[in-house]
């Protein structure tokens, strides 16, 4: 397991280097001049002399490969620079807003898991039954309703009409209910159908039929032989969505005025605040890779054969 983990961590480094390369190229080729964006945010007249001074200060007058190497060293030390607008270190601003996004992401993810696992499992073992039809209805609704529209519908019914929950913001546990439901519904639709399909395919495997011929109890077969094998494909989808949630659910945070990481990024785009945009892209890549690695470890805990198979492939 240790060798497998080291190989997985080693494979992360080239991906991060590629992400930083693309990030540097994006800034280098962008029609927006970071120096001019800084002067505009600071309300300073952008004369040629001042622009040249700021470009030299930001290292924009250096060759592309020099800028790339400097960016790698700086981001490796989690030095994201200073915001053009607020004048505060970007890392401090991110750490101030990241807990709100983590709270919302984990709440929606837990809700999705608690609903989709039993619903997808029951839909798979009772094909064309009540839970199967229910899962299809949820999958249809979750896939067809945009997040911003669902958010406004929930606000209209539960906050405006019924006055049961707050419209937006953060504070009490009740503030997280509506945005968590808005985020969880598409995930429930995805995870339920993934688990249902996986359960149906697993139940057709020869070892499941053989276990039944041996007289093993159905509950043991379903729990040990079916669910344990059927759940890894769902974990793969979970890892991809966990990274997406942790990097900021931009639309939902905007709809519910949630002071999270994604909303901070949107504001930075409008302000052309390059250090924030650069820090966001790097952290997004880091969180996506980290969540993928976490899911790999969970799958390894469920099925230790993955490590042996990985070693055989290499």
UniProtKB/TrEMBL annotation:
Keyword Membrane: yes
Presence of the UniProt keyword Membrane in the record: yes
Domain ABC transmembrane type-1: 98-299
A Gene Ontology biological process term: transmembrane transport
Cellular component terms (Gene Ontology): plasma membrane
UniProt membrane topology term: Multi-pass membrane protein
Superkingdom of source: Bacteria
Entry's localization field: Cell membrane
Primary localization: membrane
Entry keyword set: Cell membrane, Membrane, Transmembrane, Transmembrane helix, Transport
InterPro entries: BPD_transp_1_N (IPR045621), MetI-like (IPR000515), MetI-like_sf (IPR035906)
Transmembrane parts of this sequence: 12-30, 104-125, 137-162, 174-194, 242-261, 281-302
SUPFAM superfamilies linked: MetI-like (SSF161098)
Family: Belongs to the binding-protein-dependent transport system permease family.
Protein name according to UniProt: Nickel transporter subunit membrane component of ABC superfamily
Organism whose genome encodes this protein: Exiguobacterium oxidotolerans
Encoding gene, per UniProt annotation: nikB
């Amino acid at each position: 397991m240790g060798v497998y983990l080291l190989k997985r961590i080693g494979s992360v480094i080239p991906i991060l280097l590629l992400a930083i390369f693309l990030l540097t190229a994006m800034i280098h080729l962008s029609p927006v001049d970071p120096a001019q964006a800084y002067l505009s945010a600071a309300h300073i007249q952008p004369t040629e002399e001042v622009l040249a001074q700021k470009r030299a200060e930001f290292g924009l007058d250096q060759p592309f490969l020099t800028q790339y190497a400097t960016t790698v060293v700086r981001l490796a030390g989690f030095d994201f620079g200073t915001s053009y607008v607020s004048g505060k270190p970007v890392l401090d601003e991110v750490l101030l807003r990241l807990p709100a996004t983590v709270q919302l992401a984990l709440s929606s993810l837990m809700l999705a898991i608690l609903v989709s696992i039993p619903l997808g499992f029951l839909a798979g073992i009772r094909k064309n039954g009540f839970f199967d039809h229910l899962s299809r209805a949820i999958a249809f609704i979750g896939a067809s309703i945009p997040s911003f529209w669902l958010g406004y519908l929930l606000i209209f019914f539960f906050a405006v009409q019924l006055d049961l929950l707050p419209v937006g913001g953060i504070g009490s546990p009740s503030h997280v209910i509506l945005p968590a439901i808005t985020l969880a519904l598409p995930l429930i639709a995805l995870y339920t159908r993934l688990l249902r399909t996986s359960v149906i395919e697993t139940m057709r495997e020869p070892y499941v039929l053989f276990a039944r011929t041996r007289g093993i109890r159905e509950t043991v077969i379903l729990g040990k032989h079916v669910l344990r094998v059927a759940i890894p494909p769902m974990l793969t989808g979970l890892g991809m969505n966990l990274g997406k949630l942790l990097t900021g659910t931009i639309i939902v945070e905007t709809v519910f005025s949630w002071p999270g990481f994604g909303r901070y990024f949107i504001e930075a785009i409008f302000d052309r605040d390059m250090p924030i945009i650069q820090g966001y892209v790097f952290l997004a890549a880091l969180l996506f890779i980290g969540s993928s690695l976490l899911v790999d470890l969970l799958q390894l805990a469920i099925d230790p054969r993955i490590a042996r198979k990985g070693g055989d492939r290499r």
